[in-house]
């Protein structure tokens, strides 16, 4: 079976109305993406900003009359709304398998590898995390995730305990255990992320007693760890500074990522005010990783 893909460029203000029209025209799927190079990194809470120019892609069954659809589209919208339009025939594929074919083994640091389940690791003697792309965030391809994996490869010590706050796919939690951590608490507010972490842990032969997957409200106050790692966004990182402090042991380390380079100073100021000391900042492209220590005399 094939599909007909209609691609439309429109303005941000018209994206919803164009998408509603396509849905009423029996589109089986509709996706939005940037029609130019404009980037959106960290929106305000409870907002869904779009690009100034949006590309709307809609899939229709192969028996759809594209000429009738385009005529109806032109009757509904003028050239100020439909800036560009085109369509093509798309052969049906196993799209998950296409994605996996493009996902290759990646090394982080000296010994840590993230490999898809279908591939033999390039270095069988390395530390191997088996992971396939899925719905939950985190495969190592994003610079902030890469920064965290590189830190784990270089710094995790045998027997340490760790919180992975915002665990997503569980990649950081699993990597920490593979690198020698004794116990990891994987925390996320998303049920899908919890389930993905549990499934990926089983796939990597992680024992149930090595990892606890928790919602934030289940992270009780007496859980204190050697390392707390959070690869989320700057605003929640600042909001969570006091909570993170409560869950660190004396001389514990707080490893933060998901931070744009221009946000580093604000994060540093927030955590220093909570009694942390900044011990390291590393950058990869426009993203940064900050490591804070919590001296014993300042911990409450």
Automatic annotation (TrEMBL):
Q: Name one GO biological process term.
A: methylation
In alphabetical order, the GO MF annotations are: protein-lysine N-methyltransferase activity
What subcellular compartments does it reside in? Cytoplasm
Task: State any GO CC term.
Answer: ribosome
Q: Name one Pfam family in it.
A: PrmA
* Enzyme Commission code(s) on record: 2.1.1.-
Q: Which reaction does it catalyse?
A: L-lysyl-[protein] + 3 S-adenosyl-L-methionine = N(6),N(6),N(6)-trimethyl-L-lysyl-[protein] + 3 S-adenosyl-L-homocysteine + 3 H(+)
Which key words tag this protein in UniProt? Cytoplasm, Methyltransferase, Ribonucleoprotein, Ribosomal protein, S-adenosyl-L-methionine, Transferase
Which residues participate in S-adenosyl-L-methionine binding? 145, 166, 188, 231
InterPro entries, per this entry? Ribosomal_L11_MeTrfase_PrmA, Ribosomal_PrmA_MeTrfase, SAM-dependent_MTases_sf
Domain of life from the UniProt record:
Bacteria
Regarding protein family, the annotation reads: Belongs to the methyltransferase superfamily. PrmA family.
**What is the recorded function of this protein according to its Swiss-Prot or TrEMBL entry?**
Methylates ribosomal protein L11.
Protein name per Swiss-Prot or TrEMBL: Ribosomal protein L11 methyltransferase
What is the scientific name of the source organism?
Candidatus Rickettsiella viridis
* Gene designation: prmA
């Amino acid at each position: 079976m094939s599909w007909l893909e209609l691609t439309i460029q429109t303005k941000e203000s018209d994206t919803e109305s164009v998408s509603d029209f396509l849905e009423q025209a029996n589109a089986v799927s509709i996706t939005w993406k940037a029609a130019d190079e404009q980037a959106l990194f960290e929106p305000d809470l409870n907002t869904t900003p779009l690009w100034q120019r949006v590309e709307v892609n809609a899939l229709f069954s192969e028996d759809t009359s594209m000429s009738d659809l385009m005529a109806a589209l032109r009757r509904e919208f003028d050239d100020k709304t439909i800036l560009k339009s085109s369509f093509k025939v798309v052969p049906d594929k196993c799209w998950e398998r296409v994605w996996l074919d493009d996902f290759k083994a990646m090394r982080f640091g000296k010994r840590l590898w993230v490999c898809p389940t279908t591939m033999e690791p390039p270095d069988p003697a390395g530390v191997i995390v088996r992971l396939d792309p899925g719905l939950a965030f985190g495969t190592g391809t994003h610079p902030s995730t890469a920064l965290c994996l590189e830190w784990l490869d270089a710094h995790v010590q045998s027997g340490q305990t760790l919180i992975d706050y915002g665990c997503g796919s569980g990649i950081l939690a699993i990597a920490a255990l593979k690198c020698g951590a004794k116990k990891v608490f994987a925390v996320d507010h998303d049920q899908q992320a919890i389930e993905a972490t549990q499934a990926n842990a089983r796939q990597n032969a992680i024992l149930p007693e090595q990892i606890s997957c928790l919602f934030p409200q289940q992270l009780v106050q007496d859980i204190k760890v050697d390392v707390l790692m959070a690869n989320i966004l700057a605003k929640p990182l600042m909001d969570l500074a006091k909570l993170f402090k409560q869950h660190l042991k004396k001389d514990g380390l707080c490893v933060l990522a998901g931070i744009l380079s221009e946000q580093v100073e604000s994060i540093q100021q927030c955590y220093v005010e909570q009694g942390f000391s900044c011990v390291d900042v590393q950058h990869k492209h426009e993203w940064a990783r900050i490591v804070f220590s919590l001296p014993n005399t300042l911990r409450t």
